[in-house]
Amino acid sequence: MKLTITQQDLLHVLTKAVGVVERRNTIPVLANVKLQADTALTVKASDMDIEVTATGQADVTTSGATTVNADTLTSIVKRLGKSSVVTLEQADDWLTVSSGRSNFKLATLPADTFPEMASSDYDHSGTIESDTLAQMFNKTKFAMSTEETRYYLNGVYMHNDDAGGLIIVAIDGHRLAKMASDVDLTVAPVIVPRKTVLELVKLLDDVDTVTVETSDTKLRIKGDGFTLTSKVVDGTYPQYERVIPTGNDKTMTVCAKEFSEASARVSLVSDDRTKAVKLNVSDGVCVLSVRGQTGNAVEEVAVEYDSDDLEAGYNSKYLAEMMAQAEGGNVEMAFGSPMDPALVKLSEVEGFVGVVMPVRM
């Protein structure tokens, strides 16, 4: 195998793929990326559950394939000149990486030892604008669970509603985030794993549209220059609709930035375990207060509110993460009783619904 490629093109395809590589694993070849040279350069990375391939233009002199340590190659390419041309040449068990006066010789493993994710038929396929899909993942991923015992919550649930609209939702038992779109995309109902979500949002940055293919066991997303294939979580997602309150009739509208900053300040003295902040809401004002072991804090924020006075407590971290989705606009919080979950909607983000569970003060 021998080819030449610009430093920027090589770094671009490596960056797309290497996020999948697990730094600690028991299979040596999984620390590598597979380099395939034919009419172009294809870089493939896998952790056995997720596979990403990225393709870039290259001048291929001799076709071939090999695998090389992902971190080492990426680190070298990052430090080469941005306007430089890189030559990759594989012979025997070594890959030579050269550019200008720089020359590296890296150990390789055979390409035929690199795992290939088994192909499968997909039940549904369609296209969607990458910006739309990225927003839906970005606005929900913060609510994914990290608890190993409830593995089926360690990701987002992608499915269609009764009208055929696309829904992506995440829930961790403390909060819920849901994005709905009327985009024409039919999918098999799947739980997309946490790692897949985090890798996917990076891949969606510089493409216009993507093809989404789903089956009961796999998800594949293809865009210009990349393909991501992932197993989905084998589990049953809970009936999250039951968590979304329908009778909350006390509505507070507030600037997300002002509320979040005030909450962050008062929570500086809150208990490290609960991070609880009390809200006292009345006509025109919300008083945020904290009584902690290290001190007390009170701050007022102007709001729109014309219902009965309300007192309720919430985890300040969960409130802050919910407010961060507002993109600088206003947040509408609808309350029921003090121990009912709060319903959250965002003025600047159509289709978003959030839920935050209360805490005892």
Approximate shape: elongated
Distance between the termini: 66 Å
Tally of individual helices: 6
Radius of gyration: 25 Å
Major beta sheet, strand line-up: 5-1-7-8-9-6-2-3-4-17-16-15-10
Mean pLDDT: 95
SS class: alpha+beta
Total number of domains? 3
Q: Tell me the strand percentage band.
A: 35-45%
CATH-derived topology of the largest domain: DNA Polymerase III, Chain A, domain 2
Q: By CATH's scheme, which homologous superfamily of the largest domain applies?
A: DNA Polymerase III, subunit A, domain 2
CATH class annotation of the largest domain: Alpha Beta
| Largest sheet, strands/sense/barrel | 13 strands, antiparallel
Give me a quick take on this structure.
The chain is built from 6 helices and 25 strands.
Overview of this protein structure:
Strand 23 and strand 24 form a beta hairpin. With 361 residues, the protein is of the alpha+beta class. The longest helix has 12 residues, at 7-18. Helices cover 16% and strands 42% of the residues. It has 6 helices and 25 strands. The protein has 3 domains: 2-113, Roll (DNA Polymerase III, Chain A, domain 2); 124-242, Roll (DNA Polymerase III, Chain A, domain 2); 244-356, Roll (DNA Polymerase III, Chain A, domain 2). Helix 5 packs antiparallel against helix 6. Strands 5-1-7-8-9-6-2-3-4-17-16-15-10 form a 13-stranded antiparallel β-sheet. The chain has an 8-stranded antiparallel β-sheet with strand order 14-11-12-13-25-24-23-18. It has helices at 7-18, 70-78, 130-138, 194-203, 256-266, 316-323, and strands at 2-6, 32-37, 41-46, 50-56, 59-62, 64-69, 85-91, 94-99, 102-109, 124-129, 155-160, 166-171, 175-181, 190-193, 209-214, 218-223, 226-231, 250-255, 276-282, 285-292, 295-302, 310-315, 330-335, 342-346, 352-356. The mean pLDDT is 95.
